[in-house]
Design goal:
Layout (H helix, E strand, L loop, with lengths): L2 H25 L2 E7 L7 E5 L5 E9 L2 E8 L3 E11 L2 E14 L5 E3 L7 H29 L4 H29 L6 H9 L1 H31 L7 H22 L8 H36 L8 E5 L11 H21 L4 E5 L10 H11 L16 H15 L5 E6 L3 H10 L4 E6 L6 H15 L1 H19 L1 H9 L1
Parallel strand pairs: 8-9, 8-10, 10-11
Antiparallel strand pairs: 1-4, 2-5, 3-4, 5-6, 6-7
Helix pairs in contact: 1-2, 2-3, 3-7, 4-13, 5-6, 5-7, 6-7, 6-12, 7-13, 10-11
Length: 491
């Protein structure tokens, strides 16, 4: 992101905060209460212990409620009693007592409750979420076109989902306040606002359970077909993490569903709930984002203008023949090669890439070369890269070979569908601007491999994740305990 864009974004956040504060200071001089009026009566009375501090400015009836508006006059405290009478029988009435404080700023504060203009605090929170969502959306669209193979793409989409979900929830609360003002007050709304992240989890739990169940089933099927190995357990590990995380969120929600108590024990419980919920929602969005980016990369169709096709290696059979996974990558490369030749007449060169593992009879590159020759490819357009041991080395060494034959040529890499996105990230790190294509794999293999890619993605960018998870927890905790913070400021 350019420095100029960062300045504009910061100015936008500052403008929302200033607007919220100014709106509260201007509109918070009045405080509106709705008193239940089952009699449909217009007969009311208001008494105030000190009318030089606060006074009743208007009274009106709407449906089964009577609306009282109190206006702050000067700094101080006063007790107000509002009553609605049954006009046919004065012994029947509804009454309420309010202890008001008028702050030095003129804002009317209802002691231990909320304050005038509280709706604008909610509006400001909703605007901050919507603004953050819009920034992430625009960032994701731009990066999708110019720098798709980047962890920042995953992060942008994850944050897009994260802020999008919260903006929907905050906007929904704001809408409820506008449509049903007589049934909502600051205490109720801030309590719900503090509960939003946990509420998102509670709503998503049925989907998480289904997803975790599918992961476990696919993993068990994988073990059945390919044997018990550590690498075949990633799906089960993620399933357990989803179950445990969901359970922790439910437990913390049951222990303290309230965010508006001022007692230290309740504040601590609310903070714990928010920390657990925000961390879980963050990783939930990150998992969804990684899966989406992987899916999108596997569906992308590169242009038929490629000069080189790099085939990423994987384990070779004991007989020197490519195993099914590797054979799928080579066949996918051959498919693209022939399609391009047919469409444009342009012949691409092959760079099979992969060194010799300690348990392999030959290098992966040589194995792939032999297979390509068997399939009728001229050996003169095959340039094996036999030194690499990692995907990053695949890209670096293959780029060097490609540059030796044609500098700045168009490069395509072929791998398995679940591996395209992370391979693209390695190609970008190697300075190789390349597109990717992927070979399909069996249904029970893909979920486990996808989870392995996700864990690898997290591990490779652990510093960024730590920074963002800390920021997410901090901001979420701040929003969830906004009433407590305001009470501290007022007192």
């Amino acid at each position: 992101m350019k420095k100029k864009s960062k300045v504009y974004i910061a100015v936008g956040y500052l403008a929302i905060i200033i607007f919220t504060v100014v709106a509260i200071l201007l509109c918070g001089r009045n405080y509106t209460v709705y008193l239940n009026n089952p009699y449909g009566s217009d007969k009311t009375s208001v008494t105030c212990s000190d009318e030089s501090v606060i006074t009743s400015s208007s009274i009106s009836r709407k449906d089964d409620y009577t609306r009282f508006v109190f206006k702050g006059i000067k700094e101080g405290k006063a007790t107000v009693t509002a009553t609605v009478y049954d006009e046919t029988n004065e012994r029947k009435y509804t009454t309420a007592y309010y202890e008001f404080s008028v702050l030095p700023t003129g804002v009317v504060y209802l002691t231990g409750y909320d304050y005038g203009g509280w709706q604008f605090t909610l509006l400001g929170m909703a605007l901050l979420m919507l603004y953050s969502f819009a920034i992430c959306f625009l960032q994701f669209r731009r990066r999708k076109k110019t720098q798709f193979f980047s962890y920042k793409t995953v992060l942008d989409f994850a944050l897009l989902v994260f802020f999008g979900l919260q903006s929907v929830m905050y906007s929904g609360l704001l809408g409820a306040c506008l449509i049903f003002p007589q049934r909502s007050d600051g205490w109720q709304i801030y309590n719900l606002a503090g509960f939003i992240l946990t509420l998102i989890i509670l709503i998503s739990i049925p989907f998480l359970v289904l997803f975790a169940g599918f992961l476990s089933i696919s993993n068990l099927s994988l073990i059945k077909h390919e044997g018990f190995r550590k690498n075949n357990l990633f799906g089960i590990f993620i399933s357990i993490a989803l179950f445990v995380g969901s359970l922790l969120c439910i437990i913390t929600a049951i222990r303290n569903p309230n965010s508006t108590h001022l007692e230290l024990v309740y504040i601590r419980e609310a903070v714990i709930r928010t920390v657990v919920s925000s961390a879980f929602v963050y990783f939930e969005c990150l998992l969804f984002s990684a899966m989406y980016c992987t899916w999108y990369a596997s569906k992308h169709e590169p242009k038929y203008n490629q000069d080189f096709i790099v085939i990423l290696g994987c384990k070779v059979g004991k007989d020197g023949k490519p195993l099914p996974l590797l054979r799928g990558r080579i066949d996918r490369a051959l498919e693209f090669y022939y399609n391009q030749l047919e469409e444009t007449g342009k012949q691409a060169c092959f760079i099979p890439s992969g060194g010799k593992g300690s348990d392999e009879v030959m290098s992966e590159a040589e194995c792939m070369k032999n297979y390509l020759v068997e399939k009728g490819i001229d050996e003169s357009i095959i340039y094996p890269e036999t030194q690499s041991a990692t995907t990053l080395q695949n890209m670096k060494f293959s780029k060097k070979i490609a540059d030796e034959h044609k500098e700045n040529g168009n490069i395509l890499f072929s791998t398995t569908n679940y591996h395209i996105f992370r391979s693209g990230m390695f190609s970008a790190k190697a300075g190789m601007k390349a597109d990717g294509i992927g070979a399909k794999t069996k249904w029970y293999f893909w979920p486990n491999a996808q989870m392995r890619e996700f864990i690898g993605l997290l591990a490779s960018e652990w510093k960024i994740n730590i920074v963002f998870i800390v920021l997410t927890i901090f901001l979420s905790t701040l929003f969830a305990n906004i009433t407590t913070i305001i009470n501290w400021i007022v007192k």
